[in-house]
Amino acid sequence: MECYLDNAATTRPFSEVCEFVSKVMYEDYGNPSSLHKKGLEGENYIKQAADRVAKTLKCTPQNIIFTSGGTESNNMALLGTAAAKKRQGKHIITTGIEHASVQKPLLYLEKEGYEITQLPVDGKGHVSAEALHDALREDTVLVSVMLVNNEVGSVLPVEILSEAVKSYNKDIVFHVDAIQAYGKMRLYPKKMGIDLMSVSGHKFHGPKGVGFLYAAEPKKLHPYIHGGGQQKGMRSGTENVPGIAGLGLAAELIYEEHEKKQDKLYRLKEYFIQRIREIEGTVINACSPEEIRQSAPHIVSVSFDGVKSEVLLHALEEEGIYVSSGSACSSNHPGISKTLKAIGVPEERLDCTLRFSFSVFTEKEQLDKTVEALKKLVPVLARYTRR
Questions:
Q1: Could you tell me which residues are beta bridge partners of residue 185?
Q2: Ranges under pLDDT 50 in the chain
Q3: For the whole model, what pTM was predicted?
Q4: What is the pLDDT of residues 145-169, one digit of tens each?
């Protein structure tokens, strides 16, 4: 039995999505900018996908800009806002636990003369509204925070943070990286006070290479890809019609009976944490047993005293169990996790931590197999390390 527990990195697409993408790619391959029937078919798929996504967010299709994925959505939000607001100010606020696709564009902006304030987080990965309010200034133009942390699963109180921002200055743009949140919880950006929100298709059983940016007011965002003027000039380039069509269907499917899906994930998480505590020398990061349902339903971060994460990861791989040692986007450039350091994980555990992440396809039997493998491997590897 194969145990794929790296769903925060990517998810297995729904079979219906694979079939739909194949049909659109093979049969309805027209360029959506073409004026003939084949082009109209492609355009209709994009409209259908925008409708499907908009229904899940209780917004209009005009609020949806399709992108190549979460990284582009984050870059579009940050660079597009900075360009549009540069005359109002050059101060941006974020947190110390953001994904690289937020951190790196902000580093670029810093080199371009912007001032970036990073808010600290507590041991659960939370940011306080008071700290945010104290950091706001007259020249602040953008606040960017993630909703669900991709490494430890902490959930930031974005509604409260948005209130702190908007009560100070309603013109400050509030951006949320919802890449690990969309499909795992109900998201209504207008109600939550979100101006821009980034999402990636392959995190909720859609195709890779496609995502979207929710924009409350798209025309206030400065486009940074120029060309043929597709998507009302907000993101030029021939649209990835099969990918967009598949994303739209995945969005519709993931939110069918959503509460049931979410409850299953939480029950799996509760069970896994209970079982993992049977192993001596393990620590669950950023999530106490009584607060599991205040964290993301699909991510568990575990430190194993005295066992190097990469060694344990490959030992589990030999057993047909696939997990991660941190953000998959950084896996080719291993290093100490900034998130783990930010939440106060002790130095000796920083390189001894694995991330287990679940999906609607995860079953209890897979978790049992994983725990039994860990019970066998961890004591042996810990003894080997001590030598």
A1: 182
A2: 331-333, 387
A3: 0.96
A4: 999 999 999 999 999 999 999 999 9
Q: Which of 18, 287, 329, 352 is catalytic?
A: 329
> Residue 33 in contact with residue 238, Cβ under 8 Å?
yes
* 368 three-state secondary structure: helix
CA distances, 338 to each of 147, 229, 241, 369 (Å): 17, 38, 36, 30
Instruction: Give the model confidence (pLDDT) of 205-257 as tens digits.
Output: 999 999 999 999 999 999 989 999 999 999 999 999 999 999 999 999 999 99
Q: Which amino acid is at 134?
A: D
Counting residues of the chain whose pLDDT is more than 90, the rounded percentage is 91
124 CB-near residues (< 8 Å, 6+ apart): 154, 286, 287, 288, 291, 295, 343
Is 59 an annotated catalytic residue? no
Beta bridge mates, 307: none
Burial of 300 (0-12, 13-18, 19+ CB in 10 A): buried
Q: The tokens 């390390």 sit on which residue?
A: 385
Say whether 140 sits in a helix, a strand or coil. strand
Residue with tokens 């005295």: 306
